[in-house]
Design brief:
Length: 264
């Protein structure tokens, strides 16, 4: 079911049993070869396909097309919400769903920059609502759900999804080829490896984080190896991403609400 297609009385009837699915995208530069709608486009299509397979169990909300993308602003073309405001937006949106009676809510993420502020929002929502409602509110990022498929497993040739990379470019070639300009796709100049920071996802995470705006780590706004992308790879990634999301939603629907163990 699609949330926006129903009147409020119908939505109220679904509140106790349905899983709310809210896709989180972004509108930001994706190198010289991809449309700025890339993150929103991909996560919206994945969520839409998942809803088709689970239409009697999932209520699909309209995608949030703006994300926390301040690190991309210097390239232009980016519409960003600051991390603090994005945290507040998610807290307010989820809070409104809780006040409407929904208790099972999945935030399906399609942009890496959203992850930290959404986790902060989850902490605030837990503090505010766990004592009264004990809802289950989960953040799920599609490429993390799908695991090895997005981490160098063949047919992919680069080690992991990053930004405007082989993975995102392949997905867009499969889903929205009219928004891809492959003649402009090329590997960006990137900082040399220092053995700790995965500037190209070619270093394992070792507990060290160094945050820099994109212009300090990419010459053209992209990363990875976009020139290796193909529609066939994109179809492979999309199918696995949808399957992973569907499997998660089926599991999540049956998760029990957690009670206060310390108060027993």
């Amino acid at each position: 079911m699609r949330y926006s297609d129903h009147h409020y009385a119908s939505l109220n009837q679904e509140a106790e049993k349905a899983v709310i699915l809210l896709p989180l995208g972004a509108t930001e530069q994706h190198g010289p070869h991809l449309a700025v709608s890339t993150d929103t486009d991909i996560v919206t299509r994945i969520a839409g396909e998942a809803e088709k397979r689970l239409s009697d169990r999932v209520l699909l909300c309209p995608s949030l097309p703006f994300g926390s993308s301040d690190h991309h602003l210097s390239f232009g073309g980016t519409l960003s919400v600051s991390p603090a405001l994005y945290t507040q937006m998610i807290t307010e949106l989820v809070g409104s769903l809780l006040k409407s009676g929904f208790r099972r809510i999945v935030l399906l993420n399609g942009h890496g920059g959203n992850i930290t502020p959404v986790k902060q929002a989850l902490a605030l929502l837990s503090h505010q609502y766990d004592g009264k409602l004990q809802p289950n509110i989960a953040l799920a990022t599609y490429w993390e759900l799908a695991g090895r498929v997005f981490s160098g497993e063949p047919p992919m040739e680069s080690p992991a999804l990053s930004h405007a990379c082989e993975y995102e470019t392949s997905l867009m070639l499969h889903l929205f080829p009219e928004k891809v300009w492959m003649d402009r796709a090329q590997r960006a100049r990137r900082p040399s490896s220092n053995g700790y920071i995965p500037f190209e996802d070619d270093e394992p995470y070792r507990g060290v984080t160094l945050f820099k705006a994109t212009r300090f780590i990419s010459s053209n706004g992209s990363s990875g190896e976009p020139q290796l992308a193909s529609a066939e790879k994109g179809r492979h990634l999309f199918d696995h991403a949808v399957t992973a999301v569907v499997q998660f939603l089926e599991s999540f629907r049956d998760w029990p609400f957690l009670g206060d163990l310390a108060g027993q």
